[in-house]
Design a protein that fits this description.
Length: about 230
């Protein structure tokens, strides 16, 4: 089973862009979490935009679809979720479509002249899972991927075999997270190192005392530092 977006047509998706303050040098795609409107992240990401003036930010919006976890109510979601913490429920069709959506955005960006190595994927929670699944299956040589309180679905892992295991990964997680416990981050990083053989110096895991299923300023500052290093 492959989830790489090349096998799926990329659907159209609405995006918000935060333009660079200086000459454009890199692009970061930020993927929001379950039930979120992407414009709610603009004030948070503006903090990073100020620290990374040559970066363009592109924020795609997930469609509103029935979500099992929310008793079938329509919510912005990249794929169906039945339980939190995440379990074995795996919405393969929607995941394939969403991976294709993000890959389509990346491909468009590359065609405008941005090298893949100057592109990073960042996601929160469900968006972190999607960022990881996309970055670890795409044929594009991306600059890096960051998961904020995300996870790697077990059923997606078979397709994750890096020909050149050198993708930089930043994983930030709150120690007080009960929706996606920090054990998902620790196990995910073990998988990246032990199964995908990504070198230890490419893997960064940051843990935050007292942080629940959200982000804070220290986490955003740490992410900005990491992005400045991989996109330099």
């Amino acid at each position: 089973m492959a989830i790489a977006g090349g096998t799926q047509p990329a659907p159209r998706v609405e995006t918000i862009a935060i333009p660079p303050k200086e000459e454009h040098g890199a692009t970061v795609f930020f993927i929001h979490g379950l039930g979120q409107q992407v414009d709610s992240w603009v004030p948070v990401l503006q903090r990073l935009a100020d620290q990374l003036p040559s970066v363009k930010w592109v924020l795609p919006q997930a469609p509103a679809v029935p979500v099992t976890y929310n008793q079938g109510r329509l919510r912005p979601s990249w794929f169906d979720i039945a339980n939190l913490p995440p379990c074995d429920h795996y919405d393969e069709a929607a995941i394939a479509t969403s991976v294709a959506t993000i890959e389509g955005l990346v491909t468009t960006e590359v065609r405008t002249g941005t090298p893949p190595t100057r592109i990073a994927l960042v996601g929160f929670s469900q968006g972190g899972a999607l960022a990881l699944m996309t970055a670890l299956t795409t044929l594009q040589e991306l600059g890096g991927v960051a998961s904020l309180s995300g996870w790697i679905p077990q059923q997606s892992r078979q397709a994750m075999h890096q020909l050149e295991p050198s993708l930089p990964v930043f994983w930030a997680h709150g120690r007080a997270d009960t929706e996606v416990p920090i054990s998902y981050a620790e196990e995910g990083m073990d998988f990246l190192g032990e199964s995908l053989h990504i070198p230890e110096d490419k893997l960064v895991l940051k843990k935050y005392d007292g942080l629940e299923h959200t982000v804070n300023d220290q986490e955003m500052d740490d992410l900005a530092v990491w992005l400045s290093q991989i996109l330099a």
